[in-house]
Write a structure and sequence with these properties.
195 residues; globular; 7 helices; two-stranded antiparallel ribbon
Protein backbone atom coordinates (compact mmCIF):
# COMPACT_ATOMS: atom_id res chain seq x y z
CA UNK A 1 0.00 0.00 0.00
CA UNK A 2 1.27 3.44 -0.88
CA UNK A 3 2.10 5.15 2.42
CA UNK A 4 3.54 8.46 3.48
CA UNK A 5 4.66 9.81 6.86
CA UNK A 6 2.68 8.82 9.97
CA UNK A 7 1.18 5.74 8.27
CA UNK A 8 -0.96 7.64 5.82
CA UNK A 9 -1.78 6.40 2.34
CA UNK A 10 -2.61 8.04 -0.98
CA UNK A 11 -5.58 7.25 -3.24
CA UNK A 12 -6.25 8.97 -6.56
CA UNK A 13 -9.66 9.00 -8.24
CA UNK A 14 -11.19 10.67 -11.29
CA UNK A 15 -14.96 10.82 -11.71
CA UNK A 16 -15.77 13.88 -13.75
CA UNK A 17 -15.25 17.46 -12.63
CA UNK A 18 -12.74 17.43 -9.78
CA UNK A 19 -14.71 20.05 -7.83
CA UNK A 20 -17.56 17.61 -7.29
CA UNK A 21 -15.33 14.58 -6.74
CA UNK A 22 -13.42 16.36 -3.98
CA UNK A 23 -16.61 17.81 -2.49
CA UNK A 24 -18.47 14.52 -2.16
CA UNK A 25 -15.51 12.69 -0.61
CA UNK A 26 -15.00 15.48 1.96
CA UNK A 27 -18.74 15.79 2.62
CA UNK A 28 -18.90 12.13 3.65
CA UNK A 29 -15.40 11.83 5.16
CA UNK A 30 -14.80 15.26 6.73
CA UNK A 31 -11.27 15.50 8.18
CA UNK A 32 -12.59 17.32 11.27
CA UNK A 33 -14.74 14.28 12.12
CA UNK A 34 -11.81 11.83 11.99
CA UNK A 35 -13.44 9.56 9.40
CA UNK A 36 -10.12 8.77 7.72
CA UNK A 37 -9.54 11.38 5.01
CA UNK A 38 -6.82 13.77 6.14
CA UNK A 39 -6.34 15.98 3.07
CA UNK A 40 -7.36 16.29 -0.56
CA UNK A 41 -5.75 17.99 -3.53
CA UNK A 42 -7.34 18.39 -6.95
CA UNK A 43 -5.19 18.21 -10.04
CA UNK A 44 -4.36 16.44 -13.26
CA UNK A 45 -2.95 13.00 -14.01
CA UNK A 46 -3.04 10.25 -16.60
CA UNK A 47 -2.17 12.44 -19.56
CA UNK A 48 0.48 12.72 -22.23
CA UNK A 49 3.82 12.33 -20.40
CA UNK A 50 5.41 14.91 -22.68
CA UNK A 51 3.06 17.58 -21.31
CA UNK A 52 4.49 19.03 -18.12
CA UNK A 53 2.68 21.18 -15.56
CA UNK A 54 -0.61 21.47 -17.46
CA UNK A 55 -3.08 24.13 -16.44
CA UNK A 56 -6.86 23.91 -16.30
CA UNK A 57 -7.43 25.69 -19.62
CA UNK A 58 -5.01 23.41 -21.47
CA UNK A 59 -6.47 20.24 -19.92
CA UNK A 60 -10.01 21.36 -20.80
CA UNK A 61 -8.95 21.84 -24.42
CA UNK A 62 -8.53 18.05 -24.63
CA UNK A 63 -4.99 18.45 -25.99
CA UNK A 64 -3.21 16.80 -23.03
CA UNK A 65 -5.42 13.74 -22.30
CA UNK A 66 -5.13 14.41 -18.55
CA UNK A 67 -7.99 13.55 -16.20
CA UNK A 68 -9.31 15.95 -13.59
CA UNK A 69 -8.67 13.98 -10.41
CA UNK A 70 -8.54 14.17 -6.64
CA UNK A 71 -5.56 12.93 -4.63
CA UNK A 72 -6.67 11.79 -1.19
CA UNK A 73 -4.35 11.42 1.78
CA UNK A 74 -6.01 9.05 4.25
CA UNK A 75 -5.39 7.09 7.44
CA UNK A 76 -5.82 3.38 6.59
CA UNK A 77 -6.36 2.52 10.26
CA UNK A 78 -9.65 4.48 10.06
CA UNK A 79 -10.78 4.02 6.45
CA UNK A 80 -9.28 1.46 4.09
CA UNK A 81 -8.47 1.89 0.43
CA UNK A 82 -11.11 -0.75 -0.37
CA UNK A 83 -13.73 1.29 1.46
CA UNK A 84 -12.86 4.41 -0.53
CA UNK A 85 -13.06 2.45 -3.79
CA UNK A 86 -16.31 0.77 -2.95
CA UNK A 87 -16.26 -2.09 -0.48
CA UNK A 88 -18.77 -2.20 2.36
CA UNK A 89 -17.46 0.33 4.87
CA UNK A 90 -16.32 -1.09 8.19
CA UNK A 91 -16.38 2.35 9.86
CA UNK A 92 -19.89 3.20 8.71
CA UNK A 93 -21.23 -0.24 9.58
CA UNK A 94 -19.76 0.11 13.06
CA UNK A 95 -21.71 3.34 13.50
CA UNK A 96 -24.83 1.76 11.94
CA UNK A 97 -25.45 4.75 9.70
CA UNK A 98 -25.42 2.86 6.36
CA UNK A 99 -25.57 -0.76 5.34
CA UNK A 100 -22.97 -0.29 2.62
CA UNK A 101 -20.92 2.50 1.13
CA UNK A 102 -19.50 1.49 -2.21
CA UNK A 103 -18.22 5.00 -2.17
CA UNK A 104 -16.28 5.91 -5.32
CA UNK A 105 -18.73 3.96 -7.47
CA UNK A 106 -21.77 5.35 -5.62
CA UNK A 107 -20.76 8.96 -6.29
CA UNK A 108 -20.83 9.15 -10.10
CA UNK A 109 -21.84 7.25 -13.24
CA UNK A 110 -18.96 4.85 -13.92
CA UNK A 111 -20.66 3.45 -17.05
CA UNK A 112 -19.99 6.46 -19.26
CA UNK A 113 -16.79 6.95 -21.24
CA UNK A 114 -15.16 10.40 -21.06
CA UNK A 115 -18.29 11.97 -19.63
CA UNK A 116 -20.21 12.80 -16.46
CA UNK A 117 -23.59 14.37 -17.08
CA UNK A 118 -23.16 17.31 -19.43
CA UNK A 119 -19.38 17.39 -18.92
CA UNK A 120 -17.80 15.72 -21.95
CA UNK A 121 -14.13 15.09 -22.68
CA UNK A 122 -11.24 12.85 -21.66
CA UNK A 123 -10.65 15.03 -18.59
CA UNK A 124 -14.03 13.83 -17.22
CA UNK A 125 -13.37 10.10 -17.49
CA UNK A 126 -13.90 7.68 -14.62
CA UNK A 127 -10.55 6.30 -13.45
CA UNK A 128 -8.80 4.81 -10.46
CA UNK A 129 -5.09 5.64 -10.47
CA UNK A 130 -3.37 3.01 -8.33
CA UNK A 131 -0.14 3.61 -6.44
CA UNK A 132 1.01 0.00 -5.99
CA UNK A 133 0.12 -3.62 -6.76
CA UNK A 134 -2.06 -3.95 -3.66
CA UNK A 135 -4.20 -0.97 -4.67
CA UNK A 136 -4.48 -2.33 -8.21
CA UNK A 137 -5.66 -5.74 -6.96
CA UNK A 138 -8.13 -4.11 -4.56
CA UNK A 139 -9.51 -1.78 -7.23
CA UNK A 140 -10.03 -4.67 -9.66
CA UNK A 141 -11.67 -6.89 -7.02
CA UNK A 142 -14.02 -4.17 -5.77
CA UNK A 143 -14.88 -3.17 -9.35
CA UNK A 144 -15.90 -6.76 -10.13
CA UNK A 145 -18.03 -6.89 -6.97
CA UNK A 146 -19.76 -3.58 -7.71
CA UNK A 147 -20.29 -4.59 -11.35
CA UNK A 148 -22.00 -7.84 -10.32
CA UNK A 149 -24.10 -6.26 -7.58
CA UNK A 150 -25.20 -2.97 -9.14
CA UNK A 151 -24.60 -2.86 -12.88
CA UNK A 152 -24.92 -6.36 -14.37
CA UNK A 153 -28.57 -6.60 -13.19
CA UNK A 154 -29.27 -3.35 -15.11
CA UNK A 155 -27.27 -4.60 -18.13
CA UNK A 156 -24.76 -1.77 -17.70
CA UNK A 157 -20.98 -2.12 -17.76
CA UNK A 158 -18.49 -0.17 -15.66
CA UNK A 159 -16.15 1.79 -17.96
CA UNK A 160 -13.80 2.99 -15.19
CA UNK A 161 -10.12 2.77 -16.10
CA UNK A 162 -7.82 1.19 -13.53
CA UNK A 163 -4.29 2.34 -14.30
CA UNK A 164 -1.02 2.99 -12.50
CA UNK A 165 -0.70 6.49 -11.11
CA UNK A 166 1.73 8.58 -13.09
CA UNK A 167 2.93 12.13 -12.78
CA UNK A 168 0.61 14.34 -10.72
CA UNK A 169 0.13 18.06 -11.28
CA UNK A 170 -1.76 20.18 -8.73
CA UNK A 171 -4.51 22.31 -10.23
CA UNK A 172 -4.42 26.06 -9.71
CA UNK A 173 -5.15 27.21 -6.14
CA UNK A 174 -8.63 28.54 -6.92
CA UNK A 175 -9.72 24.96 -7.76
CA UNK A 176 -8.70 23.60 -4.34
CA UNK A 177 -11.80 23.09 -2.12
CA UNK A 178 -13.72 25.04 -4.77
CA UNK A 179 -17.25 24.03 -3.74
CA UNK A 180 -16.51 24.76 -0.08
CA UNK A 181 -15.35 28.26 -1.03
CA UNK A 182 -18.17 28.66 -3.59
CA UNK A 183 -21.16 26.67 -2.27
CA UNK A 184 -23.39 27.73 -5.16
CA UNK A 185 -20.74 26.90 -7.76
CA UNK A 186 -21.30 24.40 -10.57
CA UNK A 187 -21.57 20.79 -9.52
CA UNK A 188 -22.15 17.98 -11.99
CA UNK A 189 -25.51 16.35 -11.23
CA UNK A 190 -23.93 12.88 -11.27
CA UNK A 191 -21.95 13.70 -8.10
CA UNK A 192 -24.39 12.31 -5.58
CA UNK A 193 -24.99 9.02 -3.83
CA UNK A 194 -26.62 6.74 -6.40
CA UNK A 195 -27.58 3.94 -3.98
Amino acid sequence: MSTTALNTSIATFASGCFWGTEHIFLKHYPPAQNKGILKTTVGFTGGNPLVTNPDYKTVCSGATDHAEAVKIEFDPSIVTYAELVGEACRYTLRLLTHTNTEFFYRTHDPTTVNRQGGDIGTQYRSAIFTHDAEQEATAKRVTEEVQAKHFTPKRDKIATEIVSAGQWWDAEEYHQLYLFKNPSGYQCPTHRLHW
